[in-house]
Amino acid sequence: MPRSESPPPHKRARQSSSAEHENGLSLPPLSLSILGVEPLDEFIKEIADWVHYTIVNRPPDLQGKIEVEAKVGLLRDRSSGQRLMLPVLVETIIAPDSIDLRFESNMSLQQHKHFNTRLNELKTASTQPSFPSTPLEYSHLYLLDSFYPTDNPHDKDKIRVTRNEKTGTVLECMRKIRLGDLNIFSPKRAADWRVSVNLEVPVSHPVGTPTHTRKKDRLSYSHEEFSIDLTQVTASTSPGSPPKLLHELEIEIARPALLLATAAKRGDPSVPELERSAFDELIRAFVNNARILVRNASEGWQ
Amino acid sequence: MPRSESPPPHKRARQSSSAEHENGLSLPPLSLSILGVEPLDEFIKEIADWVHYTIVNRPPDLQGKIEVEAKVGLLRDRSSGQRLMLPVLVETIIAPDSIDLRFESNMSLQQHKHFNTRLNELKTASTQPSFPSTPLEYSHLYLLDSFYPTDNPHDKDKIRVTRNEKTGTVLECMRKIRLGDLNIFSPKRAADWRVSVNLEVPVSHPVGTPTHTRKKDRLSYSHEEFSIDLTQVTASTSPGSPPKLLHELEIEIARPALLLATAAKRGDPSVPELERSAFDELIRAFVNNARILVRNASEGWQ
């Protein structure tokens, strides 16, 4: 049976010559499907279900900010170091723990420049009245992250202190707890991507010496509920070794409180439909944006 | 840069209380993406590209009808006979010739009944004024296919003679030439599917004895440019062995001439946009319908 909340018929208005109609060679207005609607996007729903599950089942004893982000990079086979290969033709979600792989959040300097150019063009275009969406905002941040071990030596999480690199002001001091990752393989594109859910718990400033630092030269674009960060990272690991240069691109849901509020009402029959579906709408735009970024890892916007 | 033919802004009209807005916990109208549009569906485009390539590169010396169909069934590993398993969470297209598999165009009697019930319900619902699409039509066909070898003993293609089983009238006499298959793995569903492109070349009635026959009790639903055939097949192979009962479900593009006309104009800059995009629109509805059928292999319409 058709879904109860089907929108009105979606058919294209078509104009064609009577000769074409007589030949029967012109496509008449076509419904989206036998149900009159687009079928649900299985890919977006899977990501929404997973993010929702991960948020709802977060450790109840820890208070902090939920971070949902997508990073652009490469999935690599852990033993060979080669980019993941699977016998499929289109973007798909890898089953967790099924393949021994790692995600490399990095790109070439050329790709970084390419994204910078494209995002700047988009920012300019987005201020035109004809642009079909909201203008992008932009800021340039210079940050210094210092990492400290936690009190528990078995704990893989680290404490991160973020400073304004120019002024030295401490902006954030927190422990980042990884709640889960979902890897997306994109065989048609120059890059793969990973969705991560983290919990950022505020802590007091640690004492002692940082184990390593990351200097971040960040171009931060914001659009509606999302931040898109294009970052050049200079990572120093140990005093002896030379610093490592990385180029990262990530998109993040900007307001954790909004994310939690929409997650709490997801599918709740006691709230109006708009509130019930807000979480899925937020994730849909998040996935759309991540897809657009990945598809432009080597081309113009598409 | 945004696409030149972007539609106007897609944002939801939202109403919410001022208290919610003050808390910042209500989702404001959201664009579909930073570009203001949905990104292209990579899956549908891949199928459209493949069907188009297969049609355009068909054998130029053979005149016949192009058949594009999607069958619902199971992808099976050829050696183990088990259903294909891949470490992915969502529907994806298998790279051709990458895995040694076969497609089984069959389902259980229960699934067949389930589809029959659902399609009948949909047919009834589709006649209501509130239904968001065109009414479905329905016919019940009793057919008998007889298969004959071709003159060339190295030729895998067979000649098929189709008769009205009740009257014995010959309806069709043709050689079906397989141009290509694309297999779709659907890990979340009870069934996989396969898109096939065939060329049906009319031939004169063969002489001699058929190698085997297929009796088809077919419920044929039609909707706009598509036929959906739910068929109970009684296949007889050799005189000694008992007949085999199969249950098939397939969706087919109903008008080969229209398909070819739209394929010829695909992406042609000299024709109006509506004609240029008609092929992709036809394939989009075809894929949407196939997805809806596969997703309902064990559930209600979704």
UniProtKB/TrEMBL annotation, chains A, B:
Region of interest (Disordered), ranges: 1-24
Gene Ontology biological-process entries: 7-methylguanosine mRNA capping
Cofactor: Mg(2+)
Alphabetical UniProt keywords: Hydrolase, mRNA capping, mRNA processing, Nucleus
GO-annotated cellular components: mRNA capping enzyme complex
InterPro entries: Cet1/Ctl1 (IPR040343), CYTH-like_dom_sf (IPR033469), mRNA_triPase_Cet1 (IPR004206), mRNA_triPase_Cet1_sf (IPR037009)
UniProt keyword Amino-acid biosynthesis, yes or no: no
A GO MF term: polynucleotide 5'-phosphatase activity
The EC number(s) this enzyme carries: 3.6.1.74
Subcellular location: Nucleus
Protein's UniProt keywords contain Hydrolase: yes
Lineage top rank: taxon: Eukaryota
Catalytic reaction(s) noted: a 5'-end triphospho-ribonucleoside in mRNA + H2O = a 5'-end diphospho-ribonucleoside in mRNA + phosphate + H(+)
Name of one Pfam family that matches: mRNA_triPase
Boundaries of every mRNA triphosphatase Cet1-like domain copy: 41-253
Family of this protein: Belongs to the fungal TPase family.
Function as written in the Swiss-Prot or TrEMBL entry: First step of mRNA capping. Converts the 5'-triphosphate end of a nascent mRNA chain into a diphosphate end.
Quaternary structure and partners: Heterodimer. The mRNA-capping enzyme is composed of two separate chains alpha and beta, respectively a mRNA guanylyltransferase and an mRNA 5'-triphosphate monophosphatase.
Protein known as: mRNA-capping enzyme subunit beta
Annotated source species: Mycena belliarum
